[in-house]
Design goal:
By secondary structure, the chain is mostly helical. The longest helix has 19 residues. The N and C termini lie far apart (65 Å). It is extended, with a radius of gyration of 20 Å. It contains 7 helices and no strands. Helix 1 crosses helix 2.
Amino acid sequence: MRPEKQGVCMRGDQHDWIYRGRDLAKISENKVVLRLMDIGIECLRPFDDAGLRRILTEPWHVVKKIPALSRQIRKRDHGNLYAVTAARLSSAEKQALRDLARKNKTMMSALQRQAIERILAKETREC
C-alpha cells in the first residue's frame, strides 16, 4: 500500500473513538481509519453523483434522514440485528424488541431465546 500524506482534521470524539478502536482491536490507528473508510465507501457506493454530493455537503442531521442512507446505516447497526427465527413480528413488535435488546445490552436473538426457554420450562413443569 502506497502511503498518502493527507492532513485530516477531526473532532475530539472521533479521535477518541479511533484510539478506542485501536485499543480494542490491538491494531494501529491507521488500520482503524482504513477499516472505517472501507465501511463508509461500501455504504456510499450505491449512490450516484448527485446523491453523493448531497451526502458530503449537507449537515449530518439532515443527511442521515435520507431513506436510502438510513437503510444502509441500519443494516450495519448492531442494535438492529435481525432475529434469526421463524417468528413473524409486526414492525412495532420488532422495534420494541430492538429497544429492549439495546436497553439490556444484548441481541434480539438472545431475548427471543430466553423467552422460548421460559415458555418451554413452564410447559415441562405443567406436564
